[in-house]
Design brief:
Number of helices: 10
Structural class: alpha/beta
CATH architecture of the largest domain: 3-Layer(aba) Sandwich
CATH class of the largest domain: Alpha Beta
Order of helices and strands: HHHHHHHEHEEHEH
Shape: elongated
CATH topology of the largest domain: Aspartate Aminotransferase, domain 2
Oligomer: single chain
Largest sheet: 4 strands, parallel
Mean pLDDT: 87
Distance between the termini: 64 Å
Strand content: 5-15%
Number of domains: 3
Number of strands: 4
C-alpha cells in the first residue's frame, strides 16, 4: 500500500471485516446494502466522475491554486464589524500559547484555571475601559449582550416598578440593525414593549424601566449622552450602552 497517498491515509475496514459485517446484517454485497438502504428515487445508478486521488502535497497546492482565484477587496461592511490589528506579541503569548489551556484541568470546567485567568484578564480590561465596578465574562456578540442587558434590567425592577407595570424599554433608533432584530425577538416572549425613537426627542416617562443607546452610533456619530442619561436616572430609568470597545481606547 502506498502510504503517501492521501486516500490511503484514512482508516477503514478490511475486506474480511466488510464481509463479516455484511453477513451479520443479512446482505451479500455492498451494492445490495446500498440498494436496500437508499430509496430508488434518489439512488444514482452511475458512478460519479471524480478525479483520481492526490497525495497531500499535491492536494494542498491545488487548494492554494483555487483559493488564489479569489479577489480580495477592501471591506466596507461596518455596522459593528471592523477590521482590527492584533499585535503579534498578544497573538503568540496569549492566543497561541497552549500553557493557558493545557497545563491545567480543562476536563473540569469549573476549575479550569487557565480559562478563568483569561476571562479575568478580559473582565479587568473591560472595567478599565468603561469605568464600571464589575464586568461579566463576555457574551457571543454585541446583539446578544444588548438583549441580556435589557433582560437584566427587566428582572432587576423594583417591586413598585413591577406593580406599576413598567414594561417599556426605550431603544435609540440609531443602533445596529442586528441588535434591533435580537431585541425584538427576545422582548416579545417576555412581554417587554420596545419603544424606538431618537434619544433627543423621546419623552421618558414612568412606563419605562430601561433604555439602550449606541456609542458610537450606528452612523458613526460620537454623541454626548450625559443629558439623556441624567434625565433617565431622574425618572429611575436605567441606561444600557452598546459601546465599541476599541473606540473606548481613543474616545
Amino acid at each position: 500500500m502506498k502510504s503517501d497517498l492521501f486516500s490511503q491515509r484514512h482508516l477503514g475496514p478490511r475486506q474480511s471485516e466488510i464481509k463479516e459485517m455484511l453477513e451479520t446484517i443479512g446482505v451479500g454485497t455492498m451494492d445490495e446494502l446500498v440498494s436496500r438502504t437508499i430509496p430508488k428515487a434518489i439512488l444514482r445508478s452511475q458512478f460519479m466522475n471524480l478525479p483520481d486521488a492526490m497525495d497531500e502535497h499535491s492536494y494542498l497546492e491545488r487548494m492554494r491554486e483555487i483559493a488564489g482565484r479569489n479577489l480580495r477587496f477592501r471591506t466596507y461592511m461596518g455596522l459593528g464589524f471592523y477590521n482590527t490589528i492584533l499585535p503579534p506579541v498578544i497573538q503568540r503569548n496569549i492566543l497561541e500559547n497552549p500553557n493557558w489551556y493545557t497545563s491545567y484541568t480543562p476536563y473540569q470546567a469549573e476549575i479550569s484555571q487557565g480559562r478563568l485567568e483569561a476571562l479575568l484578564n478580559y473582565q479587568t480590561v473591560i472595567m478599565e475601559l468603561t469605568g464600571l465596578e464589575i464586568a461579566n465574562a463576555s457574551l457571543l456578540d454585541e446583539s446578544s449582550a444588548a438583549a441580556e442587558a435589557m433582560i437584566m434590567l427587566f428582572n432587576a425592577r423594583s417591586r413598585s416598578a413591577v406593580k406599576e407595570g413598567r414594561n417599556n424599554f426605550f431603544v435609540d433608533e440609531n443602533i445596529f440593525p442586528q441588535t434591533k432584530a435580537v431585541l425584538i425577538t427576545r422582548a416579545e416572549s417576555l412581554g417587554i414593549e420596545l419603544i424606538f425613537g431618537s434619544y433627543r426627542e423621546v419623552e421618558l416617562d414612568g412606563s419605562m424601566f430601561g433604555s439602550l443607546i449606541q456609542y458610537p452610533a450606528a452612523d458613526g456619530e460620537i454623541r454626548d449622552y450625559s443629558a439623556f442619561t441624567a434625565s433617565a436616572h431622574e425618572k429611575e430609568i436605567a441606561v444600557a450602552v452598546a459601546a465599541d470597545l476599541m473606540s473606548l481606547v481613543l474616545i
